[in-house]
Design brief:
Blueprint lengths: L2 H12 L4 E4 L3 H20 L5 H9 L1 E4 L10 E4 L5 H12 L7 E4 L6 H5 L8 E6 L8 E6 L5 H13 L3 E4 L8 H4 L1 H12 L5 H10 L7 H8 L1 H14 L10 H9 L26 H24 L5 H11 L6 H8 L1 H15 L8 H8 L6
Parallel strand pairs: 1-2, 3-4, 4-5, 6-7
Antiparallel strand pairs: 5-6
Helix pairs in contact: 2-3, 8-13, 9-13, 13-15, 13-16, 16-17
Bound molecules: nicotinamide-adenine-dinucleotide (NAD).
The site of nicotinamide-adenine-dinucleotide has 21 residues, from helix 1 and helix 4.
Length: 377
């Protein structure tokens, strides 16, 4: 019942489900109870729910100290620590406790759903249901069937998420699923631009907000997410893609993690959040800013096109993923149409010619579309 478990439990209870909550540490159950009461109080004060509704939601919670208390569950959504062996172990135990009809789901961000499915009896009832943080607020949920998953389990999961009042998208079981995969260049290319000395952090952040309309520049966002988390996601995806240079992590970010400069939460990351710290303003050079934005957006569009090309998700789900999962101002494929597909190809080819690195290879889908003068929409 950590951060994600608490959010998911609240979503389920608020949609009318009876929720049984289990955590290996009893202290976490106590903390969760306090947090739930505080969240419901805040919703009541804001007039979003009535006092009676708040009480009804609290009554739908059942706090469990033993795993076998979950034996009558129709659904289990696991959100324990991101550790493959630990998760496999708990699913193995659970499949001996629950009925054969119980659907088993994992909220993993980066592990293989297929690998986890292999740890349960009847793996066809296993699926990935990936919420975003905070789960009670973020609308998007990635639903990720393993290769073993029965199609009816996918349909039931999509319906459940809709009943929760959330927006489900269907994604193939590949590293980073959709959102975390497509978002990689937002951080990675910004870091590369910084490392090459093209611009400083404030200028790159300014370029992406000024010309791209992003709510937060990449360095502010990485500081907000926390470098421990953000770096680990990048490293996991990089390894899982057999070291594809498109996802290569950066030494600059690793150094921050090693120094304990984890971002906002530790008072220091790329920016210094300590009291009285000096804030260096961006260099508001329009030509430089535009070139930074154009490079990063080309890489993001290329990644989105490649995910579509490889059938990881549908065109519309890819757009929903980035606008509702990470609040991008526009869907990347619609953005490609606006810029012009041929122009996107030219930008990628220029980067490739300059660096001669596989990192900058243009997606075959973009190239074909440019040749045939097609658009995504
Ligand atoms: N934090 C995020 O932004 C985020 C977003 C989406 C998905 N996720 C995924 O959700 C999962 C949980 O992440 P989190 O950030 O909530 O972690 P967290 O550290 O806040 O919570 C993990 C919880 O698991 C409990 N736990 C550990 N081992 C257990 C066991 N064997 N049995 C029962 N409980 C056990 C811990 O006591 C803790 O309460 C991970 O798989 C993570 O990848 C996290």
């Amino acid at each position: 019942m950590g951060t994600m478990g608490r959010g998911i439990a609240q979503v389920a209870a608020m949609s009318g489900c009876e929720v049984l909550v289990f955590d290996a540490q009893s202290s976490m159950l106590e903390r969760s109870k306090e947090e739930l009461v505080a969240n419901l109080k805040s919703l009541t004060e804001k007039g979003k729910i009535s006092q009676a509704e708040s009480e009804a939601v609290q009554n739908r919670y059942h706090w469990c100290h033993q795993l076998n208390q979950l034996f009558q569950s129709d659904w289990i959504i696991e959100a324990i620590r991101e550790d493959l062996d630990l998760k496999k172990q708990i699913f193995l135990e659970l499949s001996g406790i629950v009925s054969d009809q119980c659907i088993l789901a994992t909220n993993t961000s980066s592990l293989s759903v297929t690998s986890l499915a292999s740890s349960v009896t009847l793996p066809e009832r296993f699926i990935g249901i990936h919420f975003f943080n905070p789960a009670q607020i973020m609308p998007l949920v990635e639903v990720v069937p393993a290769i073993q998953t029965d199609p009816t389990v996918l349909e039931k999961s999509l319906t459940l998420i809709r009943d929760f009042g959330k927006l489900p998208i269907s994604v193939k079981d590949t590293p980073g699923f959709i959102v975390n995969r497509i978002a990689r260049p937002y951080y990675g290319e910004a870091l590369r631009i910084l490392e090459e000395g093209i611009a400083d952090i404030a200028t790159i952040d300014w370029a992406m907000t000024r010309f791209g309309g992003f709510k937060m520049g990449p360095f502010k966002l990485m500081d907000f997410i926390g470098h421990d988390v953000n770096y680990q996601v990048t490293e996991t995806i990089f390894k899982a893609f057999y070291y594809d240079p498109r996802y290569r992590p950066s030494f600059t970010q690793r150094n921050l993690v090693e120094a304990g400069y984890l971002g906002r939460k530790s008072g220091r990351g790329f920016y210094d959040y300590r009291e009285g710290a000096e804030v260096k303003p961006p260099l508001e050079d329009e030509t430089l800013g535009k070139s930074i934005f154009e490079r990063i957006i080309a890489m993001l569009i290329n990644e989105a096109a490649e995910a579509l090309f490889l059938g990881i998700s549908s065109r519309d789900d890819i757009e929903t993923a980035m606008t509702r999962g990470v609040n991008y101002p526009k869907g990347l494929l619609a953005w490609a149409d606006e810029i012009g597909i041929a122009q996107c190809v030219t930008r990628m080819d220029r980067l490739y010619e300059r660096y001669r690195e596989d990192r900058y290879r243009c997606s075959p889908l973009l190239r074909t579309m440019a040749d045939e003068q097609q658009k995504f929409f």
